[in-house]
Write a structure and sequence with these properties.
The complex is a heterodimer of chains A (348) and B (291). With 348 residues, chain A is mainly alpha-helical. Chain A contains 14 helices and 3 strands. Helix content of chain A is 66%, strand content 7%. A 3-stranded antiparallel β-sheet of chain A has the order 2-1-3. The chains are: A mainly alpha (348), B alpha/beta (291). Chains A and B meet through helix 9 and helix 10 of A and helix 4, helix 5 and helix 8 of B. The structure holds adenosine-5'-triphosphate (ATP) and magnesium ion.
Chain lengths: 348, 291
C-alpha cells in the first residue's frame, strides 16, 4: 500500500512526459548536428590544407607558401623521374641542363608558389576598410545616439541602416563598382575596395556602437556636463572610452566576416593575378591607393572555379582556405583579447 | 555663441555688500525673499517661473530668492517638482527634449541664466551638482577630482595635487583615501562615493552646489557625515539641497521651501517651517500627515 503523499506526487498518465523528452531530444540533436557540420568543414579544410601549409621536416612550416607569389606548376618527366617545379625553378632547371630544351611539360596555372600577395592584399583590405568603417560608423552612432533628438527622420535613418545589413554582398559589389570604380573614377583599386567593404560592415559597426554607447550610464554624462564639460568633451572623455571595448569587439568581428566576402571586392579591388606587391613600383605615393590587389577569398574563388581543375589544384585551394581561416581566427581572437584588456580598465 | 560672449558668469563681480545689487534690485520687489530672515545677499533669484515638460506643466509660478552662503532645502511630496527646479538652476533640463522655462526668469547674481549671452558651460562651472545616485566616473579617485580642472586645461601637476588634497579634505574623505588616490573611484563604499562626487564638485570651486537627495542611498552614518560636510561647506558655498528627510532638512538647512503639485507653498526660515508654518498644508506635511 502506498502512502497518500507518494500517490500525490506520482506522475500523471498522459503524453506530457513524452513531449518533454521529445523536445529535449529535438534540441539536442539539432545542436549536435550543427557541431557535426562545423567539425566536418573545419576538419576537411585542416586535413587537406595542412599538407600544403606544414612540412614533415624543419622548420615544419611551408615557408614558401607564405612568402612567395603564385606560380604555374610544371610537371614533366626527366630521365625517367617525375618532376614538379614552379616557374622559376623550372626556368633555372632548363638553364642548368643543356638537354632540357626538349622537355615536354604540362603546366598548371597557380598550382605552385605561394599566396603571399593574397595575404598582403587581404590584410590591406581589412585594415583600410576597418579604419573607414570605424570612423564613419562611430561618428554616425555618436550623432544618432548623443546628438540627434528622437524624430521620425532619425528613426528612418536607423531603419535604413538596419536594412543595409540585409543587402546581399553582390549588391554591395555592384554598388561599389558603380560608385567608386566608375563614377569616382578610382578604377579597380584598394580605395574602392576599402569603401565598398566599409559600407558593408557599417550596419554592424553602427549598431554595435549605438549599443555600446547606450550601455554607458546616463549618470556619467550628466556628471560630466554638470562639471562644465561641453558635449564633445563629455563624449570624448567620459563616454567613448567606456564604449570602446564593445565597439571594437563587434566591429572587428564584423570585419572578420566581411573580409571573407568575394563578391564586394571582385569588381572593386581584386586582381586575379598581379606580379608586383602593393608597395613595389609606385611612381607617386598616392598610386598606392589606386592599385588593385590580390586577395585570399578571391584567390580561392579563382583557383577553385576559374582554372581547369586537376589533381594539383586542390592543394592550393585547401592550403589557401586553411591560411585564410587562420587569419580570420587571428582577427577574431585579437578582438577578444582587446576586449578583455579594455574591459578590465573600465568597469563599472 | 561667439567666443566674446562666452563667460559672463565668470566676469561677473559679486555685488558690493554695502549697496544692494543693482541687477537684483528691480526684481526684488516681485520675488519672495525668505520671510523673517535677516536680509542677506540673494544669489539666486527665481522669478515667477513656469516650467513645462512638453505639454505638461511641472512648475507653476515659482518665485524664490536664495541667499548666498546659506543652505536651502527643497521639500515636498514626490513629483512636486523639486528636482525640476533644482535642475533649472544649472540648466540641466536643457538635456531633456521639450523641457523649457516657459515664463519668468532665473537670475544668478543678477544675470538671467537663459539670456543668449550666457554660456551654459560657464554657468555649470559656477553651479555644481551632486546627484541622487552617486556617479563617480570609472576612473581613479585622482582623475575623478581633477576631471573638471583638466577640462579647463589645467595641467600643472602641483596645482592638481593641491586641489585633490584640498577637495578631498573639504569633502571629509582625505584620511580615508589618501593612500589610494590612484585606485578606482568605484572601489569606494556608497557613502564614500557620494563624498567623492561632492569633492569632485567643489574641486572646480563653484559658487553654488545643488544636491538632489544626496543621502537617499546612504546609511545613517554616511548620511550624518554628509550632513556635517554640508555644514562645513556652507562657509564657502551656497547650497541647495533636495531631501525627503524632514530631520535632515531641519538639521542642515537655514531656509526651507515647501512645494506641492508644482507650486511653492511656503518659503521661510527652516525653524519657522518646522515650528510655526503659516500654511496648513506645510504643517500637515512636516508633521508627517501626508506626502
Ligand atoms: N524628463 C521628464 N519628462 C517628463 N516629465 C517629467 C520628467 N521629469 C519629471 N517629470 C514630471 O515632472 C514632475 C516633477 O518631477 P520632479 O522630478 O521634479 O519631482 P520631484 O519633486 O523631484 O520628485 P521626487 O521626490 O520623487 O524626486 C513630475 O510630475 C514628473 O512626472
Ligand atoms: Mg527628484
Amino acid at each position: 500500500m502506498t502512502s497518500p503523499t507518494a500517490t500525490h506526487f506520482a506522475p500523471r498518465p498522459g503524453l506530457g512526459r513524452t513531449w518533454e523528452r521529445g523536445a529535449l531530444w529535438l534540441f539536442r540533436v539539432a545542436t549536435y548536428f550543427i557541431v557535426l557540420c562545423g567539425a566536418f568543414v573545419f576538419g576537411q579544410i585542416f586535413w587537406r590544407g595542412a599538407p600544403t601549409v606544414f612540412t614533415a621536416h624543419a622548420p615544419f612550416v611551408n615557408v614558401a607558401f607564405f612568402t612567395e607569389a603564385p606560380e604555374s606548376l610544371h610537371v614533366f618527366a626527366y630521365q625517367g623521374e617525375k618532376m614538379e617545379l614552379g616557374d622559376r625553378a623550372f626556368n633555372a632547371f632548363k638553364a642548368a641542363h643543356a638537354d632540357a630544351g626538349a622537355i615536354k611539360d604540362d603546366s598548371y596555372v597557380y598550382s605552385a608558389g605561394g599566396i603571399f600577395p593574397c595575404i598582403v592584399g587581404t590584410m590591406l583590405l581589412v585594415a583600410g576598410s576597418m579604419g573607414i568603417a570605424l570612423f564613419l560608423g562611430v561618428s554616425s552612432a555618436i550623432y544618432l545616439n548623443e546628438y540627434a533628438r528622437d524624430s521620425a527622420f532619425v528613426r528612418f535613418i536607423r531603419l535604413a541602416i538596419l536594412n543595409l545589413a540585409g543587402v546581399p554582398s553582390i549588391v554591395f559589389g555592384l554598388f561599389g563598382f558603380g560608385m567608386f570604380v566608375i563614377f569616382f573614377g578610382w578604377n579597380v583599386s584598394l580605395l574602392a575596395g576599402w569603401f565598398t567593404l566599409a559600407f558593408m560592415v557599417l550596419p554592424v559597426v553602427i549598431t554595435a556602437s549605438e549599443e555600446s554607447l547606450k550601455a554607458v550610464p546616463k549618470g556619467f554624462r550628466e556628471g560630466s556636463l554638470a562639471l562644465g564639460a561641453t558635449k564633445w568633451q563629455t563624449i570624448r572623455k567620459n563616454v567613448l572610452p567606456y564604449a570602446l571595448p564593445g565597439i571594437l569587439t563587434s566591429s572587428i568581428l564584423g570585419i572578420a566576416r566581411v573580409a571573407g566576402e568575394t563578391a564586394p571586392i571582385m569588381f572593386t579591388a581584386a586582381y586575379v593575378v598581379r606580379d608586383k606587391l602593393p608597395w613595389e613600383g609606385l611612381e607617386k605615393w598616392t598610386d598606392f591607393f589606386f592599385q588593385g590587389v590580390m586577395a585570399l577569398p578571391y584567390h580561392i574563388y579563382v583557383v577553385s572555379s576559374k582554372i581547369p581543375q586537376n589533381e594539383y589544384t586542390a592543394r592550393v585551394q585547401y592550403g589557401t582556405a586553411f591560411v585564410f581561416l587562420l587569419i580570420v581566427a587571428l582577427i577574431a581572437s585579437t578582438s577578444i583579447v582587446l576586449r578583455s584588456r579594455l574591459r578590465n580598465r573600465y568597469k563599472w | 555663441m561667439s567666443a566674446a560672449t562666452l563667460s559672463p558668469m565668470e566676469r561677473l563681480p559679486a555685488p558690493p555688500p554695502s549697496s544692494p545689487s543693482l541687477a537684483v534690485a528691480p526684481v526684488a520687489a516681485m520675488s519672495a525673499p525668505a520671510a523673517d530672515l535677516p536680509p542677506s545677499r540673494p544669489i539666486i533669484d527665481i522669478d515667477h517661473v513656469d516650467f513645462f515638460y512638453g505639454q505638461s506643466q511641472a512648475l507653476h509660478d515659482v518665485s524664490l530668492r536664495l541667499d548666498e552662503k546659506k543652505v536651502t532645502a527643497f521639500i515636498g511630496p514626490s513629483g512636486c517638482g523639486k528636482s525640476t527646479l533644482l535642475r533649472c538652476l544649472n540648466r540641466m533640463n536643457d538635456l531633456i527634449d521639450g523641457a523649457r522655462v516657459a515664463k519668468g526668469s532665473i537670475r544668478i547674481r543678477g544675470i538671467d541664466i537663459h539670456a543668449p549671452a550666457v554660456d551654459v558651460i560657464e554657468l555649470r562651472k559656477r553651479v555644481g551638482m551632486v546627484f541622487q545616485k552617486s556617479n563617480p566616473f570609472p576612473k581613479s579617485i585622482y582623475e575623478n577630482i581633477t576631471y573638471g580642472l583638466r577640462l579647463q586645461g589645467v595641467k600643472d601637476k602641483g596645482r592638481l595635487d593641491a586641489v585633490v588634497e584640498k577637495s578631498l579634505r573639504g569633502a571629509a574623505l582625505w584620511d580615508e583615501v589618501k593612500d589610494r588616490l590612484h585606485a578606482s573611484g568605484l572601489g569606494l563604499s556608497g557613502g564614500q562615493q557620494q563624498r567623492l562626487c561632492i569633492a569632485r564638485a567643489i574641486a572646480v570651486e563653484p559658487d553654488i552646489i545643488l544636491m538632489d537627495e544626496p543621502c537617499s542611498a546612504l546609511d545613517p552614518i554616511s548620511t550624518s557625515k554628509v550632513e556635517e560636510l554640508i555644514h562645513e561647506l556652507k562657509k564657502e558655498f551656497t547650497i541647495v539641497i533636495v531631501t525627503h528627510n524632514m530631520q535632515q532638512a531641519a538639521r542642515c538647512s537655514d531656509q526651507t521651501a515647501f512645494f506641492y503639485l508644482g507650486r511653492l507653498i511656503e518659503f521661510a526660515a527652516t525653524r519657522t517651517i518646522f515650528m510655526n508654518p503659516s500654511n496648513p498644508q506645510t504643517e500637515a506635511y512636516v508633521s508627517g500627515r501626508f506626502g
